[in-house]
Hints:
With 132 residues, the protein is of the alpha/beta class. It contains seven helices and five strands.
Amino acid sequence: MLVFVSHSSIDTWVAKQIAKGIEEAGASTFLDESNVNVGEDFEERILSALNDAAELLVLLTPWSLTRRYVWAEIGAAWGRRIQIVGVLHGLTPEDLQSDPSVPTFLKRRDLIQLNDIETYFGQLAERINSVR
């Protein structure tokens, strides 16, 4: 199972920590800075990974909400109808709900705060174990 981790470059360290937890739960991850080689076609690699991903975890921060690639990745995951897991860091659910630029399909999701990320890791491990 591949989990695509979408994030702003400002949030890279946090995204790497999340990726470690995902891998400990038994899934593989895609992080652009770890999985795109120097000289590789960045956009093609992103699209390929999104096509292979079973779900998208998006780190929703004040910075990521302004990044076009994050929104493109969310849109690609939504179009594929794969699970989108929103992890809030530096934002509240109310912040997201009140932002008119955030699409309704994202507002309707059960989002999780970064401090509660262990809940996601446990649920992910259960999903992985149920298909083995």
